[in-house]
Design a protein that fits this description.
CATH superfamily of chain B: CO dehydrogenase flavoprotein, C-terminal domain
Strand order of the largest sheet of chain A: 8-9-10-11-7-3-2-1-12
Radius of gyration of chain B: 13 Å
Strand order of the largest sheet of chain B: 1-2-3
Radius of gyration of chain A: 18 Å
Order of helices and strands of chain B: EEEEHHEH
Structural class of chain A: alpha+beta
Number of helices of chain B: 3
Number of helices of chain A: 10
Number of domains of chain B: 1
Helix content of chain B: 25-40%
CATH architecture of chain A: 2-Layer Sandwich
Structural class of chain B: alpha+beta
Largest sheet of chain B: 3 strands, antiparallel
CATH topology of chain A: BirA Bifunctional Protein, domain 2
Number of strands of chain B: 5
CATH class of chain B: Alpha Beta
CATH topology of chain B: Enolase-like, domain 1
Oligomer: heterodimer
Largest interface: A-B, 27 and 22 residues
CATH architecture of chain B: 2-Layer Sandwich
CATH superfamily of chain A: Bira Bifunctional Protein, Domain 2
Largest sheet of chain A: 9 strands, mixed
Chain lengths: 261, 96
Amino acid sequence: MIHTKKIKIIKSMNFTMELRVIYDDKHRAYWNMGLDESLLVHLHDIGPTLRVYGWKPPAVSIGYFQSMDEEVNISAARKHGVDLVRRITGGGAVYHKYEITYSITLPENMGPIMQSYHVIDSGIIKALEKLGLEAKHHGINDVVVHGKKISGNAQTRKYGGLLQHGTLLMDVNVDEMFEILRVPEEKMRDKTIKNVKERVTSLHEEGVDVEFEELQKILVEGFKEAMNAKIYEDLLPKQVLEYAKKLEVGKYATDEWNFRR
Amino acid sequence: MQPTNGISEGNVIIKEGKLIRFHVQFHGERIRKIRINGDFFLYPEEKLEELEQKLENQEISSIENVIRSTFSECEYAGISPEIVERGIKEAWTKRR
């Protein structure tokens, strides 16, 4: 069951725009990526959408330009029941287990891509503020707390629209993560893991423990505040879900897509 | 330079340990096949595949214009024309 709401964006754009919000469950990687792309494909029919969701079973998503074999220890992932999927967005490999993910589809008129990261990331920064954490944008597409990465984000523009998705770490287990993910240079394995431990944080490590459903609401409130939006509910049309299913089965669950590079 | 038919890999490490891998197969002094993999952003994404295709059959000495003209049509981060040139040249140096 998908519950949706709509947000009216007033301040961040020169025109009034409605934005649907989906408080979604935890799903398989292939469905998650299929639905995100379907929301982008149908942007002009259903309007912009903000979706907050999780992954069950845990999954690794790799960036559009990455090779699954190079980024993931495939046999370890299969042994641990971790789904593997390739995104339509660039960036790096992400281990989706102890985190919440959002996706947002908007019209393309958000300015240059690198600048629009700052605008959209401000929703996450506002959510973190509500949790008592001072966060800021860092580099191209990261959000940091106390100088450590807590959120990574990736965007693409297709079908006349913009899709950005990103994660907010609720907890982190770097050793477990690197049982599944490969390090760039095996001889530097220990150093790489040590560096990641020093550079990454999570809500738990920052002393914030919050339930998934509560965090969904806080994240939506963050986006609402960042974009000065109003919220009301709606349901997703059937054609969006049907197309998402088509993408799930015919694209994201296939080796042809996931092992393309 | 000696003609070579080998497959070679050039790696360029960007800051914070991010790696871009250049898998290049050479035929004589030309690129036969190339695949560029890594953690970066390039918009539109399909331009990378277009670049890989354009680089095929290019002489190693004339890759600069092809790379720069493709990148002039893109927004990018974590990769640049210079990085691509560097990666291919490293693969060329390490060719078997």
